[in-house]
Amino acid sequence: MMTRLATAFREDVSKELFEIYYEFLGNVEIAKLKECVDILIEEKNWFPKISEFNEILHPKSNPDSAYMRYLERSTKQHLSEIKQLELKREQEREVPEEVKERINKIFDTIERDLRNPVLEGERAEEFERKRKIAKQKTKELLNSYDRKTQTPQTAFRAHRERDQKIDPSVS
What we know:
This protein folds into 2 domains: 2-89, no CATH class; 123-166. It is mainly α. Helix 3 packs across helix 4 (50-57). The chain is built from 8 helices and no strands.
């Protein structure tokens, strides 16, 4: 680890300096020490002191400590990677044909119901009665107008005027 630090900071490490660091840091697990060295290389501009190792190895919940900044940065990076993987997995997920068909049926039903509102009870009976009257009047109109002298529009106006004389509520 000392060789890695010496190379990263372009420092010469004497045997005495090595022994001092070993005295204070020799009981630290290799994995923790490696992580600590990585943080120091990333964070510092000079060869680290033993106190800087301790700051990282034993943080005092100081949000400005190098270790806390490192944790925050790596946490954000990991969360970002997880989010990207979740998005990728979501995009790759296939929707079964059965589900697509059900969804399409629901959309069709909603669309149809918006165009043709469901009528119930008296409203349905009234609607059906008016529909039959309109259908009958259309047949009468088509059969009654003189194709040589009238257009369907003029024949319709004539029938409407006749109907209004009979029943003023007809519009």
